[in-house]
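Hi L., both proteins are below.
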Amino acid sequence: MDSFLNQFGPLIIIFAIFYFMIIRPQQKREKDRRNMLASLKEGDEVITIGGIYGKILNLKEDVVTLDVGDKIKIKVTRSAIGNVIKKSEKDEK
């Protein structure tokens, strides 16, 4: 039993460190992103992953219609939304 711990103990410790420093935080970020995409609603101001700022005009299953200014509307997939602009962020600009 002692030789088992000597051989595999460091490997188990490395895996635990790898899990808590890389895998678990990535899973949390992905969960937060899924929740953000699911909670989108008309009127939200968003930034796409391409850097385009717009206001959501229409939401369908996987298609989001954005008003990007001067009566210009574009359609993007829901997964192309990178971030929702919060009220406090808009006030700072």
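That was the first. Here is the second:
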Amino acid sequence: MQVSEILKEVNRNYGLHPKWMKHHLPESTDDLTTDEVLSRLKINETYFWRFNEQFEWVHQQFLPEFAASGRDSLKILSAGCSSGEEAYVLSALCRDYFNRHAPHISCSVIGMDISHRALEKAKSARYTAWSLREMPQSQIDRWLEADGKKWKVRNEYRQDVRFIRGNLFTNDFEHHPGQPFDLILCRNLLIYVESNHLPVFHKNLAELLSNCGYLLLGPADPRPPKDLKYSVKWYRDIPFYQNTESGKSKGVEEVQQSTKTKKKDGGVSRPEHQVREILDLIEAKKYRKAILHLREINRTYPDNPYLMFLNGICLYAVKRKQKGDSEMKRALQILSGLNESDKPAFSEMLNSGQLVRAIQTYINAASDDQNEYY
């Protein structure tokens, strides 16, 4: 089957954007199967403790809130679980917390993905040091054990986790996942979805969520539409969406706007302050210092297209041109997959003269090198 035909089939059956899929495939490939295409996609880029602020929220706010609810069974879904690191972190956090504070509560974690290859790796629970690169050493020592040149999740943290093949676009599951879920993590999956399919994904996620359950998205993922009854809660400038089936609820965007009026640090939230500092550094041609600032803020917003673009400009300016071009192309690919109504973090403040001048800096440099950018 031709690559173009397989891409159409995957788009039709899984809702993924053809541009994203084509970007991750060789230019000429024969005899590809649908599952091989799915396995090649870089959706499976993940690691332990990714977006650590969200895991901090789970540990410090969600689990105590659930323990106080009087319920005795917690169900969690890791949607688009890839190779399973996220699911095991959730299991370990829950088991450690409940063993200490609420031993009567049981927890089950379902990891769901469309790739057979990713699920097989997840079930093996064996990982290289690269998957542990953001993980605190104390957690490595507690949750994992050495297994040759790799690390393996300890049995006590594996027993509450089950992996299934499932298609979130069609809600078609290999085994029934046992919804509704009290907590769903679907991080950095929706950025790969074609925009006209996004309402289906959001609707299906909402149907899998229990009343008052929480949905956690990735920093660059398109937000739920207004017609879904979510209320938004915040932790360290990160939104969490709570299902509110009953009672009057403000739309997501309305709550976000009202929350954004609450400022810190003398009227400017810390992330916005950091971005303004980065723009100032670029304008002053202090590119290496700007790169250091970008590394720091990227820990919280690792897939934000605007930060990628700024990072690309800086890398290009310090003669790392190939890497700079790659960053900017990634940024444009993310932006091309979003609806006009989707606004990643910093979209409003980056519609400024400073951003225009930063882009012009890059265009001038590219023109000087006879390296026209598309």
